[in-house]
Amino acid sequence: MSELRQEAEAIAEQFSDHLDVDADDVEERLETLVDEYRVPLDEARRSVTNSYLEDAGMERDELGRGGSESVLVNDIDEDEQWVDLRVKLVDLWEPRSDSISQVGLVGDESGTIKFVSFKTSELPELEEGACYELSNVVTDEYEGNYSVKLNRTTQITELDEEIEVGDNADTVEGALVDIQSGSGLIKRCPEEDCTRVLQNGRCSEHGQVEGEFDLRIKGVLDDGETVTEIIFDREATEELTGMGLEEAKDMAMDALDTTVVAEEMADDVLGRYYRVTGPTFGRYVLVDEMENPGAVDVETALIEARSI
Amino acid sequence: MSQSAPTREVARRVFASEFNDAGFTFTESDDERAPVYLLLPTGESSNRVFFVGTLTEKEDVGEESEYWRGRIVDPTGTFFVYAGQYQPEAASKLRDLEPPAYVAVVGKPRTYETDDGTVRVSVRPESITEVDADTRDRWVAETARRTIERVAAFDDDGNEYARMAREEYELDPQTYKAAALSALEDLDDGAGDELAGDTAAEGTPANGEAATSDESADGAADATDSADAPEP
């Protein structure tokens, strides 16, 4: 089958629910553009698709991609894919724009993902806590974070079953080879809904503020092949170092310097091996659980080494 | 995934014997600030290393200001680390540590040429911390595995660094595989001893063990040679 023929059949398939489109017609139109008028195939496909959209009185986002794939939310790692999800609506947020009908989090066993539904799509409203099958949603990426957009062609079916929601957890193991700046005893902006870490007493959003003390460690786990940046929040930092917030504050007070806290912590944790599990956020793994792998199993290591 | 931050260099796992055999450095671009890589004889580039061993000696070799040199021993040989005023944390660690002690080091490979033209390889530490015997054993096991993996991939098509190693060194990667396996085997013996005896103050005995088992490994190799001899 020629490339043009394949394209033609794909286009005909996309419109099968809306128009009576014959693949031969589509192929002829493509042929005219590509062979006669030297239009690149991409552009020809676009132009032909647009003319059928006009015939059908449809918008581009109403067009299905003929059989989208059923996926788990944590497996979404590509922009502009058409997918089907079986999810629970975990959380609804306040829309920040008038064009948005609903925004929030949906989740399945693999984790959660942000979803957006626009007013122009005229979809029924979803309810928090309910489970749905959402067919034909589009993936979207922004700075390494993925979301899904509902659109006019999205089919929403409420499910009668309960879906367990996972936490997008990843497990990484390696030696802790670095503790980055912004670790130890830090101050956060006290403004409502702002938890930014202060730099020299200033919040990048709210300026000079009276900060609130907190503990965290931004570290790097390295297994000799890859590096992973990890963040221990206050609770995880306390578990890791055995040092609480009050103790850290006292230590900083005695030294008239907050950096002594990170130095003290570095002494206890740098150069050790850890296995940590937690949700990924951008390029960080947020540590929920951690383990010290302890003594190495030499016999297993030997068997594995000999089999390489 | 889009990643705006520059990627951090991974810390390679390499035993002292291989590390000290590596004298060739290179950069991947002409940029003045391009990172410098040490070429490992098993065919890998290394801009950073992580190792755990026994600090056996330390000495302030500086003339005007403090300049600390530490000898850190692993099952195959000795790493030399140097820390001065530009590595204040590492320098003060070396000043405070009492050998023998297990230490973990993250650092950058450095090379310098002596008057007679030999190239010496050392480590400029980013951090030095005192660790326990489990951490040291885990490092030995991990480094043995990584070394053997590199040797296994040495003849792969398109292994650019192996090709470079073949050009720059006259070294047989199999030696490093043998050293890695024997380090792992010694760990097996050592673990048994530690379970049997008291685990306190491992520094010196562990060193002693490493030294004796190296000898016995050599002895074993000799024995095999002589055993092979009469066969044909």
Which helices and strands appear, and what pairs or packs with what?
The complex is a heterodimer of chains A (about 300) and B (about 230).
Chain A: H1 3-14, H2 23-36, H3 41-56, E1 69-70, E2 82-93, E3 100-108, E4 111-118, E5 131-142, E6 145-149, E7 155-158, E8 169-179, E9 184-188, E10 202-203, E11 207-208, E12 212-222, E13 227-232, H4 234-241, H5 245-255, H6 259-269, E14 273-281, E15 284-286, E16 289-291, H7 298-307
Parallel strand pairs in A: 1-2, 4-6, 13-15
Antiparallel strand pairs in A: 2-3, 2-5, 3-4, 5-6, 5-7, 8-12, 8-14, 9-12, 10-11, 12-13, 14-15, 14-16
Helix pairs in contact in A: 1-2, 2-3
Chain B: H1 16-21, E1 25-27, E2 36-40, E3 44-46, E4 49-60, E5 68-74, E6 77-83, H2 88-96, E7 101-113, E8 119-130, H3 133-152, H4 160-168, H5 173-196, H6 203-228
Antiparallel strand pairs in B: 1-2, 2-3, 4-5, 4-7, 5-6, 7-8
Helix pairs in contact in B: 3-5
N-to-C span of chain A: 45 Å
Q: For the largest beta sheet of chain B, what order do the strands appear in spatially?
A: 6-5-4-7-8
Structural class of chain B: alpha+beta
CATH fold category name of the largest domain in chain A: OB fold (Dihydrolipoamide Acetyltransferase, E2P)
Parts with pLDDT < 50 across at least 5 consecutive residues of chain A:
none
Helix-and-strand structural type of chain A:
alpha+beta
* Quaternary status: heterodimer
Helix residue percentage of chain A: 25-40%
Measured as a percent range, the helix fraction of chain B is: 40-55%
Question: Strand order across the biggest sheet of chain A?
Answer: 2-3-4-6-5
- Which spans of chain B have pLDDT < 50 for at least 5 consecutive residues? 191-232
Query: Beta fraction of the residues of chain B?
Result: 25-35%
Order of SSEs of chain B:
HEEEEEEHEEHHHH
Shape of chain B: globular
Cα(first) to Cα(last) distance of chain B is: 61 Å
CATH class of chain B: Mainly Beta
- Apparent shape of chain A: elongated
